């Protein structure tokens, strides 16, 4: 692939990390993410697997080194392994450093080996509780045993598993140490995510479930010694090591501004909208240039460059008045978390 000048935004940030949502559909209905009755997009609106390939390959040609596939639930998309295998060629060529996936784990038992063969080495599995009844409640449609089998299959296939847990006050507060112990026993890193004000989810999502990861950390420090790690991913995660167990624990505070200055990432929705910032509505349509020029990516690359030239400095979330100011109307399942 011809290497082009890299993507640098107006604040001198190099864009090296792309998250792509490959579907808006999901086999779960997590209360903080989706309404129970979701109207999903018609198939014609979604990028085809070929269009996803062209889009990701264009970004890789522009310097993206890390590609994370998300959704909705990426592993429920038909033939998605074809796409993973296609992206594997960029790993083989050395153009891409890492191909990863964020999943609810429900389909991992089926796909773990194929993901490994495609070149995936790490998966993030979202899991908020180890209690089967609570799991059924928070995901509405999910089954914990299926996800646990998926995690085991992933590890058996050689994939490194990281657990992502949304911190929810009054829901998994009492499981903090159980989750830490369970991850330690399974040699899995664990990251806590603050709940974000996303979409209109009716009564199931409540701002009073907000539990700051600063409080999560303080609770952890009642039992463990935390050592700050210098590691930065260019995203909203900060990491500590627990001195007693050696475990790495992450904290994602999407509502704070303190990571924007090092932001290295952009997101593309399953319809080909490029969001330059998770917390802003600014976006660029990449589906139009993809479809208008099926055999030539010149217009696509032009649209990507123009969009990056308009990447905002940071986002607008503000929980300080206990309401979801800066709330954006789209669901996480649309932009892909
Ligand atoms: N279905 C996959 C999964 O659950 O991992 C991938 C998509 S999901 C939208 C990506 C991540 O976003 C998950 O870890 C999920 O817990 C998180 N998420 C969804 N809605 C959220 C919200 N309102 N606030 C914080 N995290 C959220
Ligand atoms: Fe589905 Fe993931 Fe959203 Fe849960 S968080 S509803 S698993 S997309």
UniProtKB/TrEMBL annotation:
Residues binding GTP: 19, 68, 102, 162, 265-267
The protein's Enzyme Commission number: 4.1.99.22
Residues that bind [4Fe-4S] cluster 1: 26, 30, 33
Residue sites binding [4Fe-4S] cluster 2 per the record: 260, 263, 277
Pfam families: Mob_synth_C, Radical_SAM
Known pathway: Cofactor biosynthesis; molybdopterin biosynthesis
Cofactor comment: Binds 2 [4Fe-4S] clusters. Binds 1 [4Fe-4S] cluster coordinated with 3 cysteines and an exchangeable S-adenosyl-L-methionine and 1 [4Fe-4S] cluster coordinated with 3 cysteines and the GTP-derived substrate.
One BP term from GO: Mo-molybdopterin cofactor biosynthetic process
Chain ranges of the Radical SAM core domain: 10-236
Gene3D superfamilies (UniProt xref): Aldolase class I
Entry keyword annotation includes Lyase: yes
Catalytic activity: GTP + AH2 + S-adenosyl-L-methionine = (8S)-3',8-cyclo-7,8-dihydroguanosine 5'-triphosphate + 5'-deoxyadenosine + L-methionine + A + H(+)
PROSITE patterns: MOAA_NIFB_PQQE (PS01305), RADICAL_SAM (PS51918)
Region span, Disordered: 315-337
Keywords: 4Fe-4S, GTP-binding, Iron, Iron-sulfur, Lyase, Metal-binding, Molybdenum cofactor biosynthesis, Nucleotide-binding, S-adenosyl-L-methionine
Known cofactor(s): [4Fe-4S] cluster
PANTHER family: MOLYBDENUM COFACTOR BIOSYNTHESIS PROTEIN 1 (PTHR22960:SF0), MOLYBDOPTERIN COFACTOR SYNTHESIS PROTEIN A (PTHR22960)
Subunit structure: Monomer and homodimer.
Family, similarity comment: Belongs to the radical SAM superfamily. MoaA family.
Function (record text): Catalyzes the cyclization of GTP to (8S)-3',8-cyclo-7,8-dihydroguanosine 5'-triphosphate.
Protein name as annotated: GTP 3',8-cyclase
Name of encoding gene: moaA
């Amino acid at each position: 692939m011809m290497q082009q000048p890299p993507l640098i935004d107006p604040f001198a940030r190099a864009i090296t990390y792309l998250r792509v949502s490959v579907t808006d559909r999901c086999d779960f209905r997590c209360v903080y993410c989706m309404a129970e009755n979701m109207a999903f997009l018609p198939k014609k609106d979604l990028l085809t697997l070929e269009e996803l390939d062209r889009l990701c390959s264009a970004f890789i040609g522009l310097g993206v080194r890390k590609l994370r596939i998300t959704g909705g639930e990426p592993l429920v998309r038909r033939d998605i392994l074809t796409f993973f295998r296609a992206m594997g060629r960029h790993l083989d060529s050395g153009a891409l450093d890492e191909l990863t996936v964020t999943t609810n784990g429900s389909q991992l038992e089926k796909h773990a080996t194929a993901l490994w063969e495609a070149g995936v080495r790490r998966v993030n599995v979202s899991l908020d509780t180890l209690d089967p009844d609570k799991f059924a409640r928070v995901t509405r449609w999910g089954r914990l045993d299926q996800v646990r089998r998926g995690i085991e299959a992933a590890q058996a296939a050689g994939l490194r598993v990281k657990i992502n847990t949304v911190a929810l006050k009054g829901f998994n507060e009492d499981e903090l140490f159980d989750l830490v112990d369970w991850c330690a026993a399974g040699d899995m890193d664990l990251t806590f995510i603050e709940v974000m004000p996303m979409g209109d989810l009716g009564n199931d999502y409540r701002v009073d479930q907000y539990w700051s990861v600063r409080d999560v950390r303080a609770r952890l420090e009642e039992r463990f010694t935390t050592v700050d790690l210098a590691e930065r991913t260019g995203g909203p995660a900060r990491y500590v090591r627990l001195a007693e167990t050696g475990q790495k624990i992450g904290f994602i505070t999407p509502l704070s501004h303190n990571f924007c200055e090092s932001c290295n990432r952009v997101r593309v929705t399953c319809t080909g909208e490029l969001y330059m910032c998770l917390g802003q509505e600014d976006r660029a349509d990449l589906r139009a240039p993809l479809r208008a020029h099926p055999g030539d990516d010149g217009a696509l690359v032009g649209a990507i460059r123009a969009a990056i030239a308009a990447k905002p400095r940071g986002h607008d979330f503000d929980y300080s008045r206990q309401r979801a100011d800066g709330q954006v109307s789209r669901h996480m399942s649309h932009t892909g978390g």
